[in-house]
Design a protein that fits this description.
alpha+beta; 3-stranded antiparallel beta sheet; single chain
Length: about 180
Amino acid sequence: GSMQGPVSHNVFANDGPMAIGIGREADEDLPKIGPFQIAAADFADDRVLPAFSHTAAQKSLDLANGSYRRNFQEANPKKTVVLIYDPTGVVRYQDGDLRYTRSDIQGDFGFTLGDTPIKLVDSFRYRGVHFNKQGDFQATADTVFRASTGKMWSVLGKIRSLFVIPFGFALALYRALVQG
């Protein structure tokens, strides 16, 4: 179990996850969730920038970095990583490299945050979830579900505190909101 103070509870309850705008929302090469194109998603102080091309990924990094600077913030290049999922198998890099190559295009390529090169990774853990460049996302989705269910018991506590209702009904409402 864990203890959450009022500030950390608000981060989890009010600040995430949410889709945000960075100036790429009209681009055609973004993933869609229902009718929405997702250019960036935030959870607390973390940001995910999905992209389907090198150019789109670098553009997202540049726009996000510009947004931070306009708000007197700074992205941490040591904590910023790029993970490339390539089902075609043409992208080649080793964990920790700053550049990658492609078997279908000559040259080498890298990403930057401002002037700082960004490290390429084979995998990383985020909130207990393991992501990898092989795209083993079903296991990841199962892990996310288990992790979020465990962390979301505070939602059940909130549901119970709002109404004087039987625990069984509160649990059913929690399951519909969190697991449904």
